[in-house]
User: Which sequence fits this backbone?
């Protein structure tokens, strides 16, 4: 009989949805080999140092209904600390309107994305909330791995401190407001949270959990269709790392959460909806270079004005 440690060592880092999409695209064997090399059950020192120097982090979690949401936490560099390779402590001050503000508890699955846009570095860490006390969330590491720098728009985030006063928070329905649509239209980046079918369940497999990932392109890369009662987003999906963490989750559990940030105004738009992966090559051909499409039908959301305590410095324009 194989020991628990042996089971963990030999288990695939991918769940059934990720494996299915890897099979469909013909990269299953290569992805498995790459995943076993890249995906660790601890944070290497390089990743620990990276998280500690950041002024913000993206977090993905589940609300009381099991709906995934993506959100953003910010603080002065050092608000995240890693006391050892298996833990990360985060001093969390939630933003007004954050849909996950009251959802965290011991045992909650959590996905984290540390991203430094001006260096185009990003590292992922998926884990479990082990303890909460005095505004500090302790996360136990389940999966840790780096991501390639593709599609990241260079800009430097600088901590400026939380604003005083009452924030304006506007709830969003399935048909988004004109303000929300303008924010999406001008965005070159958003973040998406998704979850495997077994996320947070007793005995979850090695590949199960909540994931939060980055999507980027030129402003307008998120295509919006609005009807009388609904808003649908279409996002081209380009060549990536072949792991299909987000799209594989969607194949087995279609609910997702998105977060958009207005870097000029500090506005944050949280959205939740139903997603599906469009594998029709003719549909993808309408978007240059796309290999498939991600489609999301919005169900609810929240827009908070001027709440993100960061300013953004753009890199200097190269002289001809």
Assistant:
């Amino acid at each position: 009989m194989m020991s628990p440690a042996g089971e963990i060592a030999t288990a695939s880092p991918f769940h059934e949805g990720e494996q299915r999409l890897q099979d469909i695209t013909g990269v299953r064997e290569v992805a498995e080999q790459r995943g076993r090399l890249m995906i660790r059950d601890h944070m290497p020192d390089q990743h620990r140092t990276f998280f500690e120097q950041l002024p913000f982090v993206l977090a993905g979690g589940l609300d009381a209904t099991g709906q995934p949401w993506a959100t953003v936490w910010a603080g002065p560099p050092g608000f995240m600390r890693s006391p050892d390779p298996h833990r990360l402590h985060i001093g969390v001050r939630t933003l007004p309107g954050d849909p996950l503000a009251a959802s965290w508890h011991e045992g909650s699955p959590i996905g984290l994305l540390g991203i430094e846009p001006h260096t185009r570095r990003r590292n992922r860490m998926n884990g479990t909330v082990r303890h909460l006390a005095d505004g500090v969330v302790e996360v136990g590491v389940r999966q840790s791995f780096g991501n390639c720098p593709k599609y990241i728009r260079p800009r430097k985030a600088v901590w400026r401190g939380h604003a005083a006063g009452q924030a304006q928070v506007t709830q969003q329905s399935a048909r988004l407001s004109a303000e929300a649509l303008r924010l999406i239209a001008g965005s070159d980046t958003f973040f998406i949270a998704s979850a495997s079918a077994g996320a947070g369940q007793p005995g979850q497999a090695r590949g199960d959990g909540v994931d939060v990932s980055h999507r980027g392109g030129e402003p307008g890369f998120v295509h919006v269709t609005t009807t009388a009662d609904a808003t649908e987003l279409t996002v081209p999906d380009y060549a990536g790392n072949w792991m299909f963490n987000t799209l594989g989750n969607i194949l087995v559990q279609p609910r997702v959460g998105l977060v958009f940030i207005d870097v000029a105004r500090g506005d944050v738009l949280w959205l939740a909806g139903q997603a599906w992966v469009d594998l029709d090559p003719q549909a993808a051909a309408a978007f240059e270079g796309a290999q498939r499409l991600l489609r999301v039908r919005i169900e609810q959301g929240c827009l908070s004005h001027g709440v993100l305590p960061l300013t953004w410095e753009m890199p200097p324009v190269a002289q001809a």
Observations:
- Helices lie at 4-10, 16-24, 28-38, 45-52, 178-185, 245-252, 281-284.
- Residues 1-9 have pLDDT under 50 and may be disordered.
- DSSP finds seven helices and 17 strands in the chain.
